[in-house]
Batch of 4 targets.
Target 1
Amino acid sequence: MTTQTIKQSRQADDEIDLGKLFGIILDAKWLILCTVVLFSIIGVGVAILSTPIYKADALIQIESKSSGGISAMVGDMGELFSAESSATTEIEIIKSRMILGGTVDKFNLTTVVSPNYMPIIGKGLARLQGEQISLSVSRFNAPSYAVGVPLTLEVIDSEKQTFRLLEDDNNVILEGKVGELLEKNGYQFLATELVAQTGDSFTVSKISKLDAINKLQENLSISERGKQTGIISLSFSGEDRAKIQDILNDISQNYFLQNVQRNSAEAEQSLEFLKGHLPDIKTKLTASEDVLNRFRQENESIDLGLEAQSTLKVMVELEAQLNELTFKESEISQRFTQDHPAYKSLLDKRETLLKEKERLNKQVQKLPKTQREVLRMTRDVEVNQQIYIQLLNKVQELNIIKAGTVGNVRILDSAQSFSKPIKPKKALIVVLATLLGGMAGVAFVLIRAAFHRGVETPDQIEQIGMPVYASVPKSIQQLEFANKLKRNKGSNNELVLLAEANPADLSIEALRSLRTSLHFAMMEAKNNVLMISGPAPSIGKTFVSTNFAAVAAKTGQKVLLIDADMRKGYLQQCFGLRWDNGLSDYLSGKTSLSNIIKSTSIDNLDVVTRGQVPPNPSELLMHPRFKSFVDEMSAQYDLVIIDTPPVLAVTDPSIVGALAGTTLMVARFDQTTLKEIEVAQGRFEQSGVEVKGVILNAVEKKASNSYGYGYGYYNYAYKSES
């Protein structure tokens, strides 16, 4: 084989042949079809037996800040206590432990109860048969070490509603009946309802509140409808329609109440602050009034002039503005930093008012002493009075805000569960299972084809430089004969030979073609001895040898068929003969030559069976007696055919091949690989045996017509039969 030929073959092997792939799939159509049907049946079973999952949904609106109503009444104060938040923020609030924790506590979701059914299909079968069992537990407390540990609840008597709670080691923890609070060793258990038969069991476990919240979050879906709409959609899924509806309603209600409390919390805090300062301001007002009255009494009721009264009025208004700015600064500081323009504007206004106040104070210093004292005292009274009135107004405003707070959240749609389950989607499951079955079947076939590199055409063998003398089609009748020999192994007394039973079979016709080809090929051989071997077991060497011998004998040639497979040869069964008094017996000197040659019912055909299974077959074949035997038989017969074991299993064929004039190898269609043929040829060449060609046996008509090379090490076990 030249380098160019090797490169061409390897290049052809690297190419993807779509026709071959299609042919491989077409050849395995029944396997693929069965796989599709199997997966479809499994899909139907899954769709029917799967537990239905229902869905409940609710709708919540996050309202924007309103300019009317309470906000209009209280002005800036209303804006302060009705801050807006985004839908994303509100969604995260709903998912928080603060909201979901209340729902977990209300429905006792830290207690997980699940009925025990038959694995995989039990729950579905029970549902289809209407044999639903249930257990309601209103209270279950366990020691810290037992949290997360599953316990088993067994029903003792369904009529009396008695049960017992067991650990994994069948240790009884609690025992009692429904409606009774059971307490022992840190365990508390109260079952309120039990629907089950005697002997049924449940798995009960206490999980942490955090785990319960996380489990609740897994089944809760929250999203905003549209973009910046403020409409939040909530959905919750589960097996129990009524329960998921109640849970979702509770989550919505918890969120609504939390929102109201959040919006009124700041007003409540400010109200408490102002109420705490009102007594101090009132005390100061009373004190300043008393001081003013005493001074007037002591100085005989001094009246202020028009200029002083005008100055007093301005000073009081100025103090009122400063106090108002103080309130606003307190409010703004909660919303903005000092760098904010609104905060800077307030500070600038305060600075202006302080300058005006300083100017008025200088003006007052020009008045007489008595009028200055009266003016100061009167200013203190009116300023304190103004502050007190402002605080009272703020308190009233905050009371209105607190009383009128409804939050900026509105529940548009309360939770409702759908009548039809959202899972499983039965049609989709069946379709996907069918598609998966088809893909799995095709993948299996292609992978099997990729790893299996058996020869499929004579061209593949000829590409490695070995001629193919015949392609023998697979015979259905021969398969029947082979099964018959397996059933009657060692005790067959009938002629079981395809060449005699059906001479017109295509396999026999192929052997006739082989006979013609060998007639000319053996003219140049050193003798008339033909050895038939092969790389591996179970490739049809004996079938080719026996039927070819019969075909050759039909031409009038005197043919001798020798079974040189002294380990597992069964050539004698095809002719209804026994294996005793065979080749091994002659080579070991136990019998004479005349006793081992057995005639058959076929004219001109004699047979030498394998004989007793020897411990040293290879050594017997290397004995000079075997060479003498072959030479003598070659002289007595027109054609001597020697059936040998596989060359990759034992060395016997190499020994026999040295005496044979012609050597042929049998390869089985779609089983023997090119690498096996190459390795077998190499074994013969190492022994100086030239292989004339190959017989491709059991050829089938297949859609795939591509080829490939197999690689690897081949080592076959070939043990003797006892």
Note: Residues 99 and 258 are 8 Å apart (CA to CA).
Target 2
Amino acid sequence: MAKEFKRYLVTSALPYANGPVHIGHLAGVYIPSDIYTRYLRLRHRDVISVCGSDEHGVPITIKARKEGVTPQQIVDRYHELIKRSFERLGMSFDIYSRTSSPTHAVTASDFFRKLYDEGKFIEKTSMQYYDEEAQTFLADRYIVGTCPKCGNDRAYGDQCEKCGSTLSPDELIEPHSAVSGSIPVKRETKHWYLPLNQYETFLREWILDGHKEWKSNVYGQCKSWLDGGLQPRAVSRDLDWGIPVPVEGAEGKVLYVWFDAPIGYISATKDLTPEWEKYWKSEDTKMVHFIGKDNIVFHCIVFPSMLRAHGGYILPENVPANEFLNLEGEKISTSRNWAVWLHEYLDEFPGKEDVLRYVLCANAPETKDNDFTWKDFQARNNNELVAVLGNFVNRALVLTQKYYGGIVPACGQLTDYDREALSEVAAVKEALETNIENYRFRAALQEAMNIARIGNKYLADTEPWKVIKSDPERVKTILYVALQITANTAIAIEPFMPFSAAKLRGMLAVEGFDWERLGASDLIAAGHRIGTPSLLFEKIEDDVIQRQLDKLAATKAANAAAEAAQHVEPQKEEISFDDFQKMDIRVSTILTAEKVAKTKKLLHLTVDTGIDKRDIVSGIAEHFTPEELVGRQVLVLVNLAPRELKGIVSRGMILMAEDASGKLRLLGPDEATSCGAIVG
């Protein structure tokens, strides 16, 4: 028998406040969370939804150091950006808090202190890297060296971002401090650890025996961790940004961010309501964590162990983690700017909040990694939202306006086909609820859209625009039925597309409908006057999509250039001054330039070297047009042995450099110089 709950506590993973939110975050966590919460509210459940910015940890201090600002300035900037972006997308959190709040500082400190006083931690002394120049212990991210697995010379002490390997600082080859650049030394330091191994039995019983209904990816990852054996995990670290460890003699130490952040759910609830304990400590509360797969271990193993150690708190009933969303076939990367940022999307696609919500839900990575492409985004908008949902709604409302001046006609005798269509709509309710309550939001959205599909087919089959000529009374019934299906659509899409649902209610001129009425065939009474019809969605043209693809192409080119810039060719073999003296380099002027027939790369140039006028064949046609070369002063190696290319004897070489992007740059004097001037 399913457990009955009086209230719901929905948490969404705290976004890290060192950058904006992107579509991967939305598809993995925030869209599913919002759908679930909105659904529960529509069913009049007692539910609160909490979220907030995660504002401590090393990456924030690194970003602050790079920008020459304080960590507080970084988190203030991104907290506001994230909060505003969520509001614009229609995220319906009851509170969006932050872990730099005074309430959180007290809550996290008290939580740690209770476990400390009860002897729930173990103290361990270990040798860790220390930067003598900066006089600070180095977090793993502050240690840089060569990856032992792929040879990347910019790997971090916790991870190589090139090959994806998890590392420890001791594995790095030639480690150095990212703070000062100096070579760190090992020093002794003391920290507190949560002995996760002591909670293995409890976790096995609670998860492996008690929650076999969890998603396979979540259950499987938990089992893998437990089968591998849990180890004590540090809850403090040497850092000057975070919540100070509330223990005498712990100066310069803060709570580790993984310990600090989940407590943010509790502190956010405290700021929301004085009845916070009802949601955190009552067994008749259902707590659900919405997270991405990279946070499974923290929400299924670490945080429950913390709550268990503390005592008095409930544990999550479910942790429906999603997999990752890729972008155009590549892993989303904030460091490489390979992402679709929410705030930029909202600026560039005004009024299309629901299009993004729809696409990210329809393509959600629920069971495996999925891929977002701009072409798919366009296709789903044009072929589904416009051609199915928008088309049905528009036809039903426009025909009502055209034939009856916007007055809902009276329903006559229903045919078997009318009853069949209405029963199909009614059947959607159960399937929709089952899917949402089991966190299958893609399937749920499909069910919601099916109502519009039923409506489209109904109008296509009944053809009221034709029947009006022969049987106008029958058309009244057809449009009455069509408007009932339209009203049902408004209910069904609301958790997924709240802006469109509100717009549709406005066009129907109704306040709203109770969820329990979904499937009813009398939602709008005969004689009711509907509002003015307008398009629910609009087509997205190719040029709009091309701009986004061009934007990504520019990002890819910039990344390639940055990557290339960091890999300078090593110095060639040493030569003597006499060897250099043998080279005769002269300032020259290009007199003529033309492409060499039947070649892609070759240009035939005539240059004035000051010694003579000569022919040079150069493979630069893909970088320069003949027109832009004529008149340019360049440097020419004039005593290079002649070489015949495509029937032309080339006597010399024009000197140039290749930049990080692969583009060739001509070398020449800054000011006009006499041809023949010797370089050297």
Note: Residues 374-404 form the longest helix (31 residues).
Target 3
Amino acid sequence: MLKEFLDSANYSMNPYSIPMFITAVLVLLLGIYVLIQDNAIVNKSFFMLTFSAFIWQAGIGLMYLMNDTGTILIFYKLFTFLGVVVIAPGIYFLTIASLGILEEKKRFLIAGYVIAFAFYIGSLLTDSLVRGVDDHFWGYYLLYGPLSIPFLFFFCTFIIRSLQLDRIALKTMEPGIKRDQIKLLYISLYIATLGSIDFISCFPPLEVYPFGYLAVLAFVSIQAYSILRYRRASLSTIFAAMEDGIIVIDKNNRIQEANPSMEAVTGIKRQGLIGKNALDVLVPAFGRGGNSEGVAAAPLKRLMLKPTNAVNEDITFEDRGQHFNVTSSQILDRFGAKTGSILIFRDITERKKMEEELKRYQESLEELVAARTEQLRKSEEKYKALVDHALVGIGIHQNAQMVFANKQFASMLRFSEEEIIGLPILQLIHPDERELIMSRAYDRYSGKEVIDTYEMRMVRKDGSSMPAFISNATIEINGARATLITVVDTTETKLRKELEQVNQELERFTYSVSHDLRAPLRSIEGFSRALKEDYEDRLDREGQDYLQRIRAACQRMAAMIDAILQLSRIGRYEMHKEKVNLSAIAQDIASDLETTSPERKVEFSIAEAVFAAGDPMLLRMVLENLIGNAWKFTQEHELGRIEFGVMQQNSKRIYYVRDNGLGFDMKYATKIFDPFQRLDNAKAFSGSGIGLASVKRIIHRHGGEIWAESAVGKGSTFYFTLE
């Protein structure tokens, strides 16, 4: 049989086979190229799909060249059908891999491949799937048998299921890079179904040249584009969002890319960095302001000129009092040749300050230990009292086990002093940090000079992580080496820093609103008042209307500024929690509303004795906004109904305000809590668009949640919880 396949007499030139060969080669090259770019599972599944498409198209092309029908039939069963039969499971494989649900759908995928190979074996052993060969104008082609119908059903099942999964993902995904990628994959699947045109050609008397290769080529091209483009887009987004300053330089030290954070590091705009020699740009930047090259610029030169990978240096901006750790890593091509480097600039100013503080404390502690060793041995109680009242955690480990811990050390890790003694030291260190810590300990015990003050994560008794600054010192206990460690919990420090930053931003915002916005507003309001008082009688009706609109706009703007100020104050307001009678507050608000508009017919239903723990003033603001909105949006009804109450759901108390008012479309259910967001059907009513945003902020400050349920014309219900 092999002799017949290799016999050139069995082949003749046929131009109709050329598109098939071209398609096969292009598809395979695309698969190889995508695989080279990344070894991810999506890329692997794409390569498997393209390889099966290559077998399919190349096999069809060879069949068109063959003259002997018997040889064609055997060749199809042995070779070509092997590519055809795994196409559909291959598409499904790529779909679930791109959606990240491979593990969830793995069993269905394996079943698909098993069924596919069952069809393949069946085609080899019987003629029920392919029963013969027919002569067409483009060459010999196949005649399918009765088993082709189940095979077509099998093929379509996996294509349709892939379409369903992509469609579900598109409905549930938030807009973004990943959704755009899935959208392209979804479109490509529709194109893939056009490849079945080859199947139509197997049923005489149809004489249609199988143009399915075009669909195959288009399908594979779109798939490759979506995998490569959006991977690059995703990496670009991550690169831009990095807080560390990052530059990419080529092997000639020219800057190819820089992220926005690099501007803050160097004080140079990104456009001023790209394309420039890194040494020419960065060395002067780090050498200005009194820096000498030996302090800052010289280490930077070493990083860029060093041939080794993953080296780092600490450099300093003396004029700004800033410290940076700069890491240099080589970029290698797939042959291992250097094509450039990546430099990462991390601000370690705060860490340096902590290190200096810990170093001073360490020195003092070591002096104290050295001076008092003999005394402490005689008086363990004095020793324990001294250490237990230290503001930092102090512990000693020997032979990889804790042998001592003061109260602060045990407390910050949520152990008792008795529980922590005897624990392996590695149990108290985060798994991701253990290898580094063991390496430092080995170097320290070997007498090497190591940095013994550093930041790391420890593990509390409950398994949670605790960021900390650690200082180590080697001591002797009973003639054997041990390690004295001091620990500072930096959790509160980091939180305080973030809070201070937020408060500063709020203060700046408040000043801007109160000063920069109110000043021109007062001018507009003053001049419009003067126009009204002195010149109104000289204006025609249209001019008077314009003047009235200006004054109304000023009033609205003033109200909006007040609302913005109120929203900013909520975040800074110091809460005082106590037991609050929400029913009484709701009743007061209802009475005030009825007094202001006695002509309105509104039926209030307020539950009695509803209490909650919270700040009375802030909770009054919540109910004023919610009940006030209900009053406003029920004014179109002859009889308005407003209800306040509470219900129990599991262990939570859920408070609610319900009305029969205007209502809204639920697709805006989250939008309404954003500042300045007003629905189209609500724009006829007065308001700043700040009220619900203020309510949300108050509820969150109380540790609760707020949400709404509504339908257009059928009223709304606002639910909220409190801690």
Note: The longest helix spans residues 491-535.
Target 4
Amino acid sequence: MIEARILERLAALLALVALAFAAPVAAQNATSDRIAVELVAEGAPQPGETWMLALHFTPSSAEWHGYWSNPGDAGLGMQLDWDLPEGWQAGEPLYPLPQRLVIGGLMNHVYEGDYAVLVPITVPKGAAGAQAAPIGVTASYLACTDAICVPQRAALSLDPARAEADPRFDRWRAEVVPPLDSGAQFEFTPTHLRIGVPVPAATALREPHFYLGTAQLGGRDRPRYAGQQRFIREGDLLVVEMPIEPYAVPPGVELAGEPRPQAIAGILDFGAGRGVRFTAVPGDVPLEGAEPLGGSGEPVLWRLLLAALAGGVLLNIMPCVFPILSLKALALAKAGGDERAARRDALAYTAGVVAACAALGAAILLLRAAGEQVGWAFQLQEPAVVVSLFLLALAITANFLGLFEIPGMAVSGGSPSQTGSFSTGLLAAFVATPCTGPFMAVALGAALVIQPVHGLLVFTALGLGLALPFLLVGFVPAIRRLLPKPGAWMERFRKWMALPMGLTALALAWLVWRIGGSEYLALVLVLGALALGGLALVGLFQRKARSGALILGASLVAVLGLGTALLPLPLAQASSDQSLLDPVAYSEAALADARGSGSPVFVWFTADWCVTCKVNESVAIERSATRDAFEAAGVVALRGDWTQPDAEISRMLTQQGAAGVPLYLWYEPGGEAEQLPQVLTPDLLVEKARASARPR
């Protein structure tokens, strides 16, 4: 581990030297005055007190910059070699707030313009004070532009007997980052360093940033200085999440992990030139009920609610929702001219949709608070839920074909009831969950990490948006008058709607097979046959006006429920999907290896129950043109299959602010993740690959 870090540092220094020699004229004329330095005293030293000195740096021109103690991805921090009288001690240098400079994807912690580093000197009691011998210090540091770097070395001395107060000290003291007066704690996750810093909730934050002072993190990890940081507020606690990654090593080389540090130092930049320095110790960093902050401030709740509402409205046109639209079309047509009935049905349907979305959202938030890595549509990862949906789709298909009737439901021949409309709303919301991705990425992703109450409001807004078109039809007579008049056409329309619902049942059967294999599917099909037989018997009783149809139906539901519960747990199925891209199965280690290869990387997260995912794969991913472009550019492809629960995939989705799949990430060599649109155009991936293949 130590050897790898030494090699890494040597490589960085060699790169800096190479930059210097890349400009021969500048290198030949290099002197120690690229950034001049002077040693300045605050006044005369006093025995038994702290004497403050300052190293004042002045660049020869605006293009030169110096470095903070931890320079970041490149550069070199200042080294001081003191020559002090016996018993005198130099403390840790005190720096002003650094600045961020990103060059070629590398983040440097720098100072532009003149700056001063203060150094406290402890003067022992009984010391000669002003009569002490001269002190000396050799300062080694680096002066850089965007193109070259020149090592600097200055030997400085100061006679305490001649030290006088310098009026510039007031400004320099004011620029030093003040210490935090309360403790901070840190912990590690597989992908992040998480630090909880006590910061009053009233503190204004403008583009906050964390400067890590402790570069060696132990384990096998190194900080990703240029990675996106996340700030999460929980009352008077501000949580910082800084991404980390494993050290890149050659294949076959194993590195022994070093112990984690017992303390981590750093500076928290509030923005607008304000910040605090602190030292954190190991401890628990809570995130429950936390509210994430963006670079420009906290997410605005009303914007999230509006995005969720709009996404719910658009959800009505998605393929997996279309069969449910037929239910409501029939229900609204049956309402006819009865305005009160139309309003009641619209309200009941809306209540069902909103209740389902809120319940699913609450379940997700509760599970995540308990430590589970789940996202939207997580219920479709459970075999019992998929089987139940299959049986339900089969039953609705049979109802559409007239095999039986459901009293009070929108799909029945009679007048719908409020209970039936409410149940229809529940069904619509539940079945719609796999299709929310393209429209709900931002809103649902934020809902999973903001305050739970606000997150629940976002899920509720989604339900309201899904129900809004039918709510408007129920309450606006002008819209309702556009509906066709009730008549014989309704029965024909109902039977035609059996086709999309039957296709939905087939899709769910395919998903059952993907989850559990052929034997598991055979058992489920036996349940399906039992369901159809029982429903046919119920329909016979209904047509002959025999009593007991309701009891028979309830018994059938109980039997099917028991059968679903008694199904054996399906064995995990190895992914058998053949892909033109020959992707590597996603894991955090596989992603680290791919990014360390120096090639472009494409990662896509999918699931068998995600309709949008399958459409994207057909339209944009599984194409010979995409394969050829990837081969020409040397793109490494990774696929994350979220059909069944996967903690690593869930963590990555959360990291990227995604509530679920699909998610598409593109990594340029040495760059950070770029999220691609959730609805892919046919040539998008081809264009990305060709752009990566061009000489840079």
Note: The chain is about 40% helix and 20% strand.
